[in-house]
Design goal:
heterodimer; A: about 325 residues; alpha/beta; Transcription Regulator spoIIAA; Rossmann fold; 2 domains; six-stranded mixed β-sheet; five-stranded parallel β-sheet; about 35% helix; globular; B: alpha/beta; 24 strands; about 30% helix
Chain lengths: ~325, ~550
């Protein structure tokens, strides 16, 4: 049976992410390798979910395919009159074309721009750059809903001071509930991975040595670990940074200078990131970027580091109210 | 579950209209009200679960005063909302000694028996002349007549071997080990090493210690070593309390009543000395810890007048004083060593080899003093973050764990399964397993009880979230290193109290040295697996090591 969170429905198409399906069907020992178990999941969605719509398979991050893994899917494509488009498939395009030739050569293809579409008579639906933006927007919209629902007001309508930050809040967003729910954990992890890869590509983070991820809390560690495994990044996990775990307790005798990217849940005043930055400076490393699920202030508010957050917490939930700490 | 027990004793009602007695007719209500007010305000409770009184209701056989004793007990019950949970036992002043010495034991005690009828509460399991067992559903009460057969000697009785055997047989038969047991005896059944009289009074042991009772203590202790058992005694007048282990607690409570001008004893030099005027009650509060609270009546002024005093609470945690008898017993027999942990299974040889090789080649093993609990110290420690920096190893550990659960152990990881990760690395495992199997998981902080973590990461929050999860059939706990097993056992106990019974409990760890002794309840896990069981992480009692000024804890955790 397919996991319902594997796909997202749009008006004209159904979207799946191959790296996510590889992750949840067979683990992350070889995250870039498409294997039989993952293709089986795609095949189930292809044959059962909203058959009238185009199935868009995002192949981002997939670089190899285990022999004969594609056989059953392409046999289904030969049988079922449903269009399928593989996007971001430049690394595996040749294998996809070979499978098409072997199992459904009579069907038509439209290839180009890292896409391969297989259709029967006439291509009905095209996956365009607008469609790609639509996918990104919908994923973020879904994440906003997950995050918004995680908000829990403090009892009796009271405001309480948030930890490490002089901001009073009417409640808290609960990152634990986002981890608890496989669907939110899946899509948030994949979206955080995209952000990290985008930063590395854009800013050439870790050009001297490979970029490392840093998480400093229990609620960030599962996300950071998932990104590390999915993207092949080194990870340093610290259980609290601050007064209860001073740097002197954490310092290794030998360390290698690295470029770090901080992974966290929610940012308010950015104190935790600044402490993390100081800790890394202390061991001759750099922290220039932070990737988080949400931030109360816009990403460009912070000058000590570049923040990339998936969603803005400002006005996300009408019950979430903030004010400055009054002593 | 019983949570509060009030113990009073030795009312010694003599002249119930005398102003030398605090429990006199004209003052007892005011006196009790002060006590009740102190209990309610200090402990924020409106009622007590059980009231016990361990004899000497009347003084020197003044059996006509039982009716006033009843007024006193009933007033306690009314004030503390506890009318149906009272237990009493007879003291050496509660019968007519002349009849007793003449062999008419039952006649001598008839007035007490008539008085006692009102307090034969709970379901009667067994009742003989010298003991009875009563069932109060959540707990049991064993009541002794430690005077029966004393033949008017004013001291404790002596039981035959057969009579002691009968007690033990009936306790075994009627008292389930999981139910707390409250035991009442007027004469103390053990020696209280700190009590004033024991230290100073000539012949204390002969006069006060119920020696047959001491044998009963030892035999019941053997049977119920880990079952919660409270022993309540009177007669001592000078109070004390002690515990043989975290389950067996002994209280000798001071007098509640009596003529404050009278009590004296002879010290070793033969001098007549007054007792310290301890007027008190004791309140046991059972929560995560057991506290024994002494409620003392402090008289104002120099003449210790009973007319103007106030109640004061002195709380105390239990204090362990292993009994001399138990010490002897333990030293006579070879020390019973629990076998090595036979429960923990190795998940896979190859992944274990990889873990040990990584530890060896990356030099990740540290030998030092690492505190694992209040009592235990680990002499070895492995940096799990550094061990699992290898993504290949982390992946293999996760894959192997899932495979072992599903294929070797045939566990269905589905919506009836609750997955919980403890602390960072347990949570990393739990979330990876959960997302792959499409089930919910929870990440919980256990270090320092989660006090440094946000509310959502604490066990209280978990309990709140899962309290309606009645469908759960299996709970799988992931953790990094199991030392004594205390953390996972405590965690299990807490979660178990929220969920229904009959669930399968599984614990998976990255490292768990199979040679180490575990805490007893670790055996209650149905399945225990570890990715590495051969790495030795020696656990020692703190008490077996030099103190930290000589051998300091290592605080570097990288």
């Amino acid at each position: 049976m397919s996991k319902s969170y594997h796909y997202i429905s749009f008006t004209d198409f159904v979207y799946v992410r191959l790296d996510g399906i590889i992750w949840t069907s067979s683990g992350l020992s070889q995250p870039g390798n498409l294997n039989k178990a993952a293709v089986e999941q795609v095949n189930i969605i292809y044959g059962t979910v909203e058959l009238e719509k185009l199935l868009v398979v995002d192949c981002k991050g997939v670089i190899t395919i285990t022999d004969h893994s594609l056989d059953e899917l392409f046999k289904s494509i030969a049988k079922v009159n449903r269009e399928i488009t593989f996007v971001s498939c430049q690394q595996i395009e040749e294998k996809l074309s070979n499978a098409k030739k072997e199992f459904c050569n009579e069907l038509n293809t439209n290839d180009g721009d890292s896409q391969l579409t297989i259709y029967k008579r006439k291509q009905k639906q095209e996956f365009t750059s607008e469609s790609s933006n639509e996918v990104k927007s919908k994923i973020i919209k879904n994440i906003k809903e997950f995050v918004s629902k995680s908000f829990q007001k403090f009892p009796d309508g009271k405001f309480k001071r948030l930890s490490s930050t002089p901001i009073l809040a009417s409640g808290e967003y609960d990152a634990s509930s986002l981890i608890s729910n496989p669907a939110s954990f899946y899509w948030i992890s994949l979206s955080l991975l995209d952000k990290v890869e985008e930063i590395i590509e854009r800013d050439r983070v870790g050009k001297k040595s490979q970029a490392k991820l840093l998480s400093v809390s229990l609620r960030a560690a599962p996300f950071a670990s998932a990104i590390s495994l999915l993207g092949g990044f080194q990870l340093e996990c610290i259980d609290h940074l601050g007064p209860i775990n001073p740097y002197s307790k954490l310092m290794d005798q030998q360390y290698i200078s690295s470029d770090y990217i901080y992974i966290g849940d929610f940012v308010f005043g950015g104190t935790e990131i600044k402490v993390a930055k100081n800790y890394l400076n202390f061991k001759s490393s750099l922290l220039g970027h932070a990737v988080t699920i949400g931030s109360l202030f816009s990403d460009d508010t912070f000058k000590d580091f570049q923040l990339s957050s998936l969603v803005s917490l400002n006005s996300l939930n009408v019950d979430a109210k903030y004010k400055m700490f009054e002593d | 579950m019983i949570k509060t027990i009030l113990h009073i004793t030795d009312l010694h009602l003599a002249d119930i209209n005398s102003d030398a007695e605090k429990l006199r007719v004209g003052f007892y209500q005011e006196f009790i009200e002060g006590l009740v007010k102190e209990i309610k305000s200090t402990f924020k409770i409106d009622s007590i679960d059980h009231i016990l009184c361990t004899g000497d209701f009347v003084d020197k056989g003044e059996v006509k005063n039982f009716s006033h004793a009843k007024s006193i007990l009933d007033y306690f019950a009314k004030q503390l909302n506890c009318p149906k949970h009272i237990s009493i036992c007879i003291g050496n002043h509660d019968f007519i000694r002349a009849l007793d010495s003449g062999g008419k034991q039952k006649e001598a005690r008839q007035a007490y028996y008539d008085f006692e009828k009102e307090y034969l509460l709970g379901k009667e399991c067994v009742k003989t002349d010298y003991y009875q067992i009563r069932d109060f559903n959540d707990y049991m009460v064993l009541i002794f007549d430690s005077t029966y057969g004393s033949n008017g000697s004013n001291g404790p009785s002596e039981l035959s071997v057969k009579e002691i055997d009968n007690v033990i047989i009936d306790v075994s038969k009627h008292v389930p080990s999981e139910k707390p047991l409250l035991i009442l005896s007027h004469f103390p059944m053990v020696v209280f090493p700190r009590s004033q009289q024991y230290l100073e009074e000539i012949g204390w042991v002969d006069k006060h210690l119920w020696k047959s009772g001491a044998t009963i203590v030892e035999r019941i202790f053997n049977k119920r070593e880990t079952s919660l058992t409270f022993w309540f005694f009177g007669d001592g007048h000078a109070p004390d309390f002690t515990s043989y282990n975290p389950s067996h607690h002994f209280l000798m409570t001071g007098m509640l009543g009596g003529n404050y001008t009278n009590p004296t004893f002879k010290d070793a030099s033969g001098s007549i000395k007054p007792f310290n005027k301890f007027t008190e009650a004791k309140l046991i509060v059972i929560n995560e810890d057991i506290t024994i609270n002494t409620l003392s009546y402090r008289s104002k002024g120099h003449n210790l007048s009973p007319h103007s005093g106030f109640w004061e609470v002195v709380p105390s945690k239990i204090r362990l004083d292993e009994s001399p008898a138990i010490k002897i017993r333990k030293s006579e027999k070879p020390v019973e060593v629990k076998p090595d942990d036979l429960k923990t299974e190795l998940i896979g040889e190859s992944v274990q080899k990889e873990i040990i090789d990584t530890i060896r080649t990356r030099n990740l093993y540290s030998f030092n003093r690492y505190s694992t609990s209040d009592e235990d110290v680990s002499l070895g420690w492995v940096s799990i973050p550094k061990l699992l920096e290898s993504r290949d190893l982390l992946n293999r550990c996760i894959d192997k764990s899932i495979l072992w659960l599903k294929e070797t152990k045939q566990i269905a990881i589905d919506s009836d399964c609750l997955i919980i990760g403890l602390d960072i690395w347990g949570s990393v495992f739990a979330t990876q397993v959960a997302v792959r199997e499409n089930v919910k998981n929870f990440c919980i902080a256990t270090k320092d009880g989660g006090k440094h973590n946000v509310h959502f990461e604490r066990i209280d929050s978990l309990c709140e979230r899962i309290k309606d999860h009645n469908h759960i059939k299996t709970v799988i706990i992931f953790t990094d290193v199991v030392a004594t097993g205390n953390t996972v056992v405590q965690f299990k106990s807490r979660v178990e109290s929220i969920l229904s019974n009959g669930m399968k409990w599984i614990c998976l760890s990255i490292i768990s040295d199979k040679k180490q002794k575990r805490v007893q309840k670790f055996d209650e896990f149905n399945i225990v697996g570890t990715l590495c069981s051969d790495l030795i992480l020696p656990i020692m009692k703190k008490s077996d090591l030099p103190d930290e000024t000589i051998f300091p804890s290592n605080s570097i955790f990288v």
